[in-house]
Design brief:
The chain is of the alpha+beta class. The protein has three helices and five strands, in the order αααβββββ.
Length: 140
């Protein structure tokens, strides 16, 4: 199988462990919940959820999912970091829509959007009326 086959196996195992931790299932999930307590465990769940949404966005964009343009109305910091990238609360105004959308998402620390900036959204397959943040459309 070689080096690359082992790497994929490790990544899959790490993703499975992270999923167990976020769900409080299995040895890792129960141990994490027991050692952290409810408040910190909720923070872990939010961080893993934010990471998973970023992975989902990359997969959807690679598959050619359509994007929607939106303007950033407000942005605020949550004080959380995932892989040293900030997790922020965004209020967005989609182009051609009167409703505003509130999202909590990871943004690149090199490309933090500001109020008035145009960003891209992609439809969330897990929530039919929801959206996921897809960045500013500029290649990293």
């Amino acid at each position: 199988m070689g080096i690359y086959g082992k790497r994929r196996g490790r990544e899959e195992r790490a993703a499975r462990i992270a999923d167990q931790m976020a769900g409080g299932r299995g040895f890792y999930g129960r141990a994490t919940r027991a050692f952290l307590g409810d408040e910190d465990f909720a923070r872990v769940q939010q961080s893993i959820g934010a990471y998973n949404s970023g992975v989902s966005v990359r997969q959807l964009l690679a598959a050619g999912a359509p994007t929607t343009s939106a303007v950033v109305v407000t942005i605020s910091d949550t004080g959380k970091l995932v892989n040293f990238d900030p997790v922020v609360d965004l209020v967005l105004q989609p182009t051609g829509a009167s409703d505003r959308i509130a999202l909590q998402t990871i943004v690149s620390k090199l490309r933090i959007p500001r109020a008035g900036d145009r960003v891209l959204l992609v439809a969330d397959p897990a929530r039919p009326a929801g959206y996921l943040y897809a960045g500013d459309g500029v290649a990293p």
